[in-house]
Amino acid sequence: MRTAFFYSLLLSCAVWACQSGTSEKQSPTAESVPDSTESAITKVDTLIPENPGEDTKVEEVKPYTPNRVDDVVVLPGTAKNSSPSTDPTPQARPVPAKQGDAIENNSQGVAPDVLAKDTPPSHEKWQALLQKFVDSNGKVNYQGLAGNKAELEAYLQILASTPVQTEWSRKEKLAYWINAYNAFTIKLILDNYPTSSITNLHGGKPWDVKWIKLGDKTYSLNNIENDIIRPQFKEPRIHFAVNCAAKSCPPLLNQAWTADNLERYLEGQTRQFINNAIYNQIKADAASISKIFDWYAADFGDLTTFINRYSNTPLQENAKIDYLEYDWALNK
After folding, report:
1. SS3 helix, strand, coil % of the chain, rounded to 5?
2. Which pTM was predicted?
C-alpha cells in the first residue's frame, strides 16, 4: 500500500510540474512540454516493479546537483578541501626538508643567512668560557680551556656563520670584532698548546697569518685590528680591549663584549690599565708607560692629555716619558 501511494504521489508531482508556470505568461502547449518530464516518469516506472510487495523498497531518484563546499562549486572528480581558505594571499612555500639542519635552532623557521642580516650573534657561549677560565686579573687557564675546546669551537662557528652586517649598530659591530679578535687568539694558543709565548708561533709573526674565516672572507689578526677596528671605529680605547695573549698586554676581560656594556667596559679597562703599576708607572714629572702608547701613538693624539683623562696622578706638560720593555710570556 505504501508503494502504491508513493507511486501515485510521484505521478501527481510530475503532472503538477507540467501544468505549473502559468501566470501572466502564455501557457505552454503540449508540444512544449519538456521531454525530461516523460523521462522522469519512465525512470520511476523502471524502478517500481509491476506488482510490488509490502516489503519492497523504492530508491528515490534525485536530480544531479553539484557538490558544494562552503558555496564553492566542486566539479565531479575533483577532491574537496576540508576547509578552503578565504585568504586571497598565497601561502609561502615550505622550506625544503634538506634545509632542516640549517634552521634547527631558529624558532621562526628563517635560515641563518637571513637572520644574519638583522641580528648580531649571541656571545653567551664566549661569556660562559671567560667566566670559567679567566680570572679577574685577566690570567687565562689555558689548560682548562683545552679541555673545553669544543665549546670554544662552537662559539667561533657562530661568529663565522654570522659576519658583520651593515644593518648592525656601531656598538654591535665593534663588540663583534673585539670578541672575534680575543676568541681567535685563544684558539691560536690552544691549537699550539703548550707554548710559552705567542711569538713562538708562525716564525714570530702569528698576527700576519690569514686563517680566520668569517662569512665568505678570511682574515688575519692584523686584518681585524689594523684594517677594520682601528680605521673604521677610530677608538683608542680598543687597545685595552683586544688581547694578544701576552703578560704585558692589557688584561683579558672575563666578560664578553656587547653593545650594552661596550662603553662601560672601554672606560673601565682603560682606567684600570693606566693606573696599574704593572703596566704603567706614573709620576707627575715622569712616567714609564706601556709600549702600546708608543706603537699606536697616532691613535691617542696628545699622549699627556689622553693619560691625564684616566690617570690618578696627572702628568705635567713637560713630564718625561719612556716605555717599558714588553713581556711576551703567555698570560697564564
Report:
1. 45, 10, 45
2. 0.67
